[in-house]
Amino acid sequence: MTIDHQRMYRDIVVKLAKIDKSQDALSKELEISRSTIWRLSKSKEISTNNFFKIIEWIDQGFERYLIGYVNPSNKSKYL
Predict the structure, then answer these.
(1) Are 34 and 27 in contact (CB under 8 A)?
(2) Which of 7, 20, 72, 73 is most buried, most CB within 10 Å of its CB?
(3) How far apart are CA 37 and CA 33, in angstroms?
(4) Is the pTM of this model over 0.85?
(5) Is the dihedral of CA 42, 1, 17, 27 positive or negative?
(6) Which of 16, 49, 17, 11 is nearest to 33 (CA)?
(7) Domains of the chain in sequence order
(8) What are the 10-residue block averages of pLDDT along the chain, 79 residues in total?
């Protein structure tokens, strides 16, 4: 199982555009470094703590960003 960095980055960019906020403002709000967002854009790993901060802000389930995740309740894959 791996993180879909590009999907997460796209979702961040879309939400920021909808609320007219910059990536710098987001990094301050979430108390993450600006480089964390850059790392997502380049498909590089981020910390688990930052992953969950971003997931909470995006307001999506974590499984949306996991490649190869199998939901134990219905055995379907999220790709």
Answers:
(1) yes
(2) 7
(3) 8
(4) no
(5) negative
(6) 49
(7) 2-78 (1.10.260.40)
(8) 92 98 97 96 95 96 85 60
